[in-house]
Amino acid sequence: MAANIISGTEVAKAIREELKVEVAELTEKHGIVPGLVTILVGEDPASQSYVAAKNKSAHALGIHSEQVTLDVDTPEADLLALVEKYNNDPKINGILVQLPLPKHINEANVLYAINPDKDVDGFHPVNVGKMVLGEQCFLPCTPHGILELLVRSGVETSGAEVVVVGRSNIVGKPIANLMLQKREAGNATVTLCHTRTKDMAAHCRRADILIAAVGVPKMITADMVKDGVAVIDVGVNRIGMSSTGKAILAGDVDFEGVKEKASCITPVPGGVGPMTITMLMKNTVQAAKMAANLI
C-alpha cells in the first residue's frame, strides 16, 4: 500500500493562517507589528529567490519586512556595522543574513554578531546552547518545521527509533537533539548517521522514523527501509532541466520506490521546503512577543 503523502505546503498554509491571526491580535491589542530584516550580500540567484519568498511571506502575514542588498565585495566590517544597526532598531525583531556569504566574509563572525534575541534563524551559539538544554529559544527553522510536520501528521515519536542521515549544523545535529528531548515530537531513541557510518543501510532499516538530510539525490532506496516507516526527506537536489528550462528536483530519498513501503512520506518539492520559511515567520512573531514581555 502506497504511503500517505505529507504535504508541507498544506501544513505550512495552516500555520500561516494561525500566524496571521496572531499578528493581527498583536497589532490590534498591543500596537505591536513584528519586524524582520533580510540582508543579502551579492546577487546569487538562489539567494535572491529565497529572500524574495521570505519577504513575500512576511508581508502576507502583516509582518513589517525590510530587505537590504549589498554589493558582493562589501567589506565584512560594513556588514557587521549593518547588523549592529538593526540590533539597536526597535522596529526590527528578527535579523536574517542570507547564507552563503562571499568567501572574504567570515560567516561565524556575522552570525555571532546578531543579537541572540533577534536571531530568528536559530544559529547563534546562545540559541544553540539553549536548544540543547531544552530551554525556550528560537529553534532552527528546518528542524522546527520537521517537528511540526510530524506532530500535525499524527506520527508518534515517543519511544520511536529515529534515524537521521546527515550531521549538518543546520538540520542533522539539531533535529537529532530535539527528537531525543522530553518534549512534544520528542522522547525518541535517535541514531545519527554520516559519511563514516558503517553499514548505513542496517541502521536505516531499524528506523520507525527516517529523516534524510544529506544532499545526495535518491540515496535512500527501498531496500534500506522497513515497511511502515515514516520518512521526512529534507534534500533538495537539482538533477536536470526540463524541456521548458525548469529545474528537475529530487530528494535524498528515492520517492517512487520508498513510498510503496512507507506509512507516510514527504515529497520533494512540496514537503519540508515550505515549512522552513513558515517557521522563520513563527520565530519572528515569537521575537516580537519576547521583546514586549508577552512571553
Verbal overview:
By secondary structure, this protein is an alpha/beta fold. The protein folds into two domains: 32-118, 3-Layer(aba) Sandwich (Rossmann fold); 141-274, Rossmann fold. Helices cover 40% and strands 17% of the residues. The chain has ten helices and eleven strands. It has helices at residues 8-30, 45-61, 76-87, 107-113, 125-133, 141-152, 172-180, 200-205, 255-258, 273-291, and strands spanning 4-5, 35-41, 64-70, 94-97, 161-165, 189-193, 209-212, 230-233, 237-241, 247-250, 264-265. A hairpin with a 5-residue loop joins strand 9 and strand 10 (247-250). Helix 1 (8-30) runs parallel beside helix 10, helix 2 (45-61) crosses helix 10 and helix 6 crosses helix 10 (273-291). The chain is globular and about 55 Å long.
Give short descriptive properties of this protein.
single chain, 295 residues, alpha/beta, Rossmann fold, 2 domains, 3-stranded parallel β-sheet
Give a brief outline of the structure.
GO terms for molecular function: methenyltetrahydrofolate cyclohydrolase activity; methylenetetrahydrofolate dehydrogenase (NADP+) activity. With 295 residues, the protein is α/β, with parallel strands linked by helices.
